[in-house]
């Protein structure tokens, strides 16, 4: 009888790779009052001597995908993110040179572009995602009266400081730690209703109105020292009502896009340092904060559920 170390197989393993996909890394670098942001989605795929884990389940050559995730966050803190290319090269070299069974590393990175929200003065820690927003309007006419509701959706904004959240109700299910310096980020969905309702009235300049409402809203987001997203929302609406006579009502639906400070202590790295930090940008679940802000004496007419508009 011939003894084979491995039985002849009618089936063999082909190309394979593994790793952690879509690590959402936000790196804030603080240069005094001026902050810089790098926002990446990093996917790691490793391959090499990985036959055994597939054939027998032996994990002896497997660097856990969880470790590849931790490496991405630790490198973002330790070495910074100069560019997506430089970051990808650094990671790929690390996996191939530090682990004998790993022969190839493929790092895919999407980078999300942000630009600064310009305010009249420092500090500079407010950003808006480039080219994301959609402008909206709804016009209704019954032969006599007009109703115009305009607005936008998918306008993503972020403050890298000047946001706290504490002093809230705590019951037996509350585990949230009070935050004294957190990232505040949201994707704004907002509608505003014009006071113009009949042909005898002076019609607003729609283009100027949109530009100005957007600018006032962004400035209020950037300039509010926030104790909650609810407070920031109110300021954004109030700023539009105060500055734009043609607008009587504003409604916002604001997802609270949570950014969690990554615990890098196990790797000997202090994350929350004066020169900045690395965050995990979670996409769900998210807090959802919604409210209407009105000119005093005006009727609320924008539907509560913005998806119906
Ligand atoms: O700004 C916030 N408002 C909340 O109501 C809330 N709830 C929560 O868990 N985090 C936050 N943040």
TrEMBL record:
Q: Name one GO biological process term.
A: purine nucleobase metabolic process
Which positions does UniProt annotate for 5-hydroxyisourate binding? 65-66, 165, 182, 230, 256
Write the record's keywords in alphabetical order, separated by commas: Oxidoreductase, Purine metabolism
For this protein, the record's Gene3D superfamilies field holds:
Urate Oxidase (3.10.270.10)
Keyword Cell inner membrane assigned:
no
One Pfam match, given by its short name, reads Uricase
Give the first-level EC class, as a single word. Answer: oxidoreductase
Give the positions the UniProt entry annotates as the active site.
Answer: 20, 65, 258
UniProt xrefs under InterPro entries: Uricase (IPR002042)
Q: Which family does it belong to?
A: Belongs to the uricase family.
Q: Which NCBIfam families match?
A: urate_oxi
Q: What is this protein called?
A: Uricase
What does UniProt list as this organism's lineage? Bacteria, Bacillati, Actinomycetota, Actinomycetes, Kitasatosporales
